[in-house]
Records
---
Amino acid sequence: MIPEYALRQKQSLALPGKVRITEVRIREWYDHYQGQICVNVSGRDSLVLLDIVRSLYPRVPAVFSNTGLEFPEIVDFMKNLPNTFIVKPKMHFTEVLRRYGYPVISKEVSRQIHDIRQKEPTADLTKALLLGQLDNKQSRLKDKWLFLLGAPFLISDKCCYYIKKRPVHDFHKQNNLVMMTGILASDSKLRLMNYLQYGCNNFNGKMPCSRPMAFWLHEDVKEYVKQHNLPIPSVYDHYEHTGCMFCCFGMHLEECPNRFQLLKKTHPKQWAYCLDKLGFRQVLDWLHLPYNDCHLFPEIHKNDFEDYVKKANREFKQSAYYKQLMAVTPQSKMTNLLLGLH
């Protein structure tokens, strides 16, 4: 494990120092796999990585997963990017939503909700629910998100795998290539933990992967783009981050205008399709997350969402499903579990 202070030290370096370290990691990866590498491109961060990689090895290919959920400006840009292969998912997003559910709150929470809902209420499920031991995955569902178990729609993190990751993984496997990505440790808790465990180059994983910019910050990426006059999709004139247009991960943390409110302004057709054809209106309404113009919801802030979560949890704990969970474990033990006294 890499100590977190070591990551902070690297993150504090000036951009030239970060570029040099990234170049070292790229050379290590290229040499180890004798040049059989490929850069996954999806947005600004990965385009910076591709620029650095091709400054060293100009013939390295790139691959872009056209999920159908990308901003049209990004799709158009990638179509004109030299030596870039475009892949598409075998399963449509609507089918992923129908089978597995909607991506809400975070990847970790959505996975936990999906996994728990697959089980029958038993003592083992209660243990998994409260202690995070479902199928040996040591990740406890926080009490704050218990109410999501009562959502009137399916929830999961599967869309990222079926729509984005799997097509790219299949491409690498079919072409005997190993991947490089431009993800940053600062993007999320999961990416932070991944970096601390494996560092930039994970040679020994089930799916070897290089993340040679993992210790960069988004300010570094923007500075690199500016210094090198690097072309990037025009959508970044309006958005700080892009990713899938309809993803709800982290939306509850955003101030007005949040991503859906901004999407209505910049891409009204995609906004309407997402809400009414894909069913996100029901999801966001149930979560009390605004998606219309800011002036229509001046009173909604993050504190209002927190108040809603508390209220929803109180109501969920009166539900038959929650009471069924409580019935499988003695109340005294359950109280200790909830209080973290196990």
---
Amino acid sequence: MTIAVYVVCILALAFIVLNLVGLAMSRSWRVARTIKSAADPADVYPLIASFEQGWSRWSPWGPASDPKMKVTYEGPPSGLGATQAWTGGETGRGRITIVDADDRGRIGYQLAFGTFSIAGEIELRDGDIVWTNTGTLGGPPMFRIGGMFAERVVGKAMERGLADLVRETSAVPARQ
């Protein structure tokens, strides 16, 4: 047999093994991060409920971190129905919409970019800001292996975003 046949056989075997390993893994992934915040929830909520006035200042995936990203906003400026869409940059094309909002300190959102769909939530709880993202990995079973890296890759970005969010709330003057 020639070297080309060996290479094809090895690649086929790797493909089969990766898919078998993927079959044993979950399609779902979940990443959550928490940070302490002394800020008044009334000062934090506007930063999580508005993409243009809030997220653009602290999100690790926003225009501030990716100058090639072209962003548009739709719907209300904040809260339920607020939407940000983008093209270009590292994530290509995407859209995020706030699908649940409680001005006492919680928003839920739906995010889609490329073939990925993410459900997320940011909640203010007793001095903590809790950010959670969940998703499902589509495609062939071997793509599920990528879920092992979500915790590290997505989690690090979320930690940066939460730290920036807390910094932004520190800049808000204290309430009288």
---
Amino acid sequence: MEDVETTEIIEMPNFLNNENIATISALVAQKDALDQYFKERTDSILIMFIALLIRQHVLFIGPPGIAKSYLIESFCKGVECRFFARQITKFSVPEELFGPYSILALKEGRFERVTTDRLPEAEVAYLDEIFNGNSSILNALNSAMNERVFEGKKIPLECVYGATNFTPEDNANQAFYDRFLFRFLLDYIQDSSAFEEMLISGAFEGAPPVEKAAIDDLRAKLDLVDARAMVGVFSHIRELMRVNSIQVSDRRYKWALQAVKAVALLEGRSFCRKEDADILQHILWSDKKDIPMVATIIMKVTSPIAADIEEFVRQAMSIRTELNALDPSDKDATKAGQAIKGITDGCAKLKLIKKEIKSYIKNLEASGTPLRVKDQSKVEGILGSIEQTRKEQAARIVGSDDEDEDA
């Protein structure tokens, strides 16, 4: 069973009133309910709440059939707001999103849309397959998301949650792509027990919805969160990003600081901590090939221990990829023999990595350096995943020893 960590409010700043405290508790209840239901989606769920607090936009990228739509719709039901949702196709026209032109207004010589139940009147929007939109749709969305303006008029739009199976490669869509502060890759459920829980789960039942006015009042307290400790953190991250030829705009760093402050506020803190910057892993990359490097840079600055753990993960994943390419049932006896030896050696390497991780953690504990709670949970998942991979690969070899050495 997946071990879902619930959010704990550790202390309440003096600038929060009783209503703010109640709002944080309600948001945390919503977050925990989503965490329990949607498997392996903890980080993406947190991002949705952070985006709501800072009035920014989120793009979820992943293959069909991973419940992107259900996750976003379930989240939006937990907030009392005007909501608009639409799946965009290459045949979609602006009227589907922004409303048709009023016939009466046209007769009077005015170009005026009927925006009832359309995006210009929404506070939160979900747009599926967003990059299927033509240039007229994306250009209008660009202004709506960046300036909160549509056809010269202010609109109440706060957050757009977009979903796509791909990221744009043409320069024409890059400006629109940049409107999404958060970009998050989603994949199919990896853990077997989490997959099994998903199979037998019923419909999602969240906590009672949070009033929009209460969220607005809490949002007003963001500027009171002390983020001075993050200046050096951001500067260090920026320096390492430049060394690795990853360019990020000053504007994106500025927006990212608001996200870090929101992490602290959602945990009931009046100040930011270094590890709050972990969320930058989903903000500072543009090209998917840069994701591993960005994650490594941020972890090196915010938690060197987490960076070391991630290195173990990369080693295990590399071995798994190599093993998956081997075929012990090859008709060529020589190739089959080589594959069997390769799998045997690979399983031994996985066992060694598992032993090294346990030794690493043991040495940390002996030195009085405890793991963060989130890292403890991650280590447990990594050890379980390595052992599962080892057993699956060993099962491909007839007569192999499948016993684990508990180090």
